[in-house]
Records
---
Amino acid sequence: DTGVSQDPRHKITKRGQNVTFRCDPISEHNRLYWYRQTLGQGPEFLTYFQNEAQLEKSRLLSDRFSAERPKGSFSTLEIQRTEQGDSAMYLCASSLKTYEQYFGPGTRLTVT
Amino acid sequence: LAKTTQPISMDSYEGQEVNITCSHNNIATNDYITWYQQFPSQGPRFIIQGYKTKVTNEVASLFIPADRKSSTLSLPRVSLSDTAVYYCLVGDLTNNNAGNMLTFGGGTRLMVKP
């Protein structure tokens, strides 16, 4: 399978703990995006990388969130001091063309 | 990015043609119209994109009137597996110099019944 993969698929954590998610994009895609989706809503943009450079970050993104893409390949999204409001599906997407993004299956985070 | 308005939900039956209309009254000259499909517990999937008139691929057709203030996604002969949420997005997404994240609205929940 050469699609976008995400790990883990599910994560349950206690409030205040740190969590890290990983995304492996399609190998030839230089663009990588992170989105967050809550139940009944469309995905919400979090941040964007072109190769290893983080070029955009949502103004809604708390300082507790940080993302990296070392070497322009896989990416990690870390949430520090998790809160119950962070519970959501975290989606990663990659692309060559901006409008045709390929999404991974997502990581479902539950903060208890 | 231009704001879009779609019906919250639609019902259909297997074998019927489904048309989902999206309103985007303040679409800009450089904006394109893109549709994504999302199944439960999966990420969205690109369906089709267009600028004006009609675009057709193996999955769907996209109809865009001359004023481009709306667009209609047409799914021919739907099956149960077409039950999903469909998102309409509008923006200058071909500008490769910008990040241009996708701005999703609430989407249209299509339920296909036997």
---
Amino acid sequence: SAVISQKPSRDICQRGTSLTIQCQVDSQVTMMFWYRQQPGQSLTLIATANQGSEATYESGFVIDKFPISRPNLTFSTLTVSNMSPEDSSIYLCSVGHREEKLFFGSGTQLSVL
Amino acid sequence: GQQVMQIPQYQHVQEGEDFTTYCNSSTTLSNIQWYKQRPGGHPVFLIQLVKSGEVKKQKRLTFQFGEAKKNSSLHITATQTTDVGTYFCAGNNAGNNRKLIWGLGTSLAVNP
């Protein structure tokens, strides 16, 4: 198991601004993932955060909009850039061996006005 | 495209009744995972099944993986109010990419 600290837990932002979400894990993990969950919906993978190299983005998500950093094996950030109301969602970081037995952070509830 | 269908979408039961959610994949899976998300919370990993026909139990919860590794079920016996939440299945493709495909979830409400 892993203990994941994610912050902020929630934020209300103005359109056009950017928000950076941080994810800290209590142990070194191979794989870290960033998910988005619309209210009442399932989870959608945004990208896999790779340590020391560029993140791997899923279809429909681009680096300019969702830049990701992973400077070491215990920390990652996701930035939601140039926000619009459509970006209002819950953003979750998760860790696991490959995409199995995932542990999730507590999530960041983002509202864009 | 690859899909994992989950039914029902919602279920409302009286406390003490049983509950089952079903998961069906359009492709063969290498494993099936189940997660529970309480209202306002984050998904919590419950279990992973990897073998064809596998059945695992966790107290009142019984998980099953189909023989063809395309479907799965979660059965809760004698539901309690603490079982409230959304149950998601997710499976890794059996192919090379091993992409994780999530079901849409079943939301369970339990009347005390």
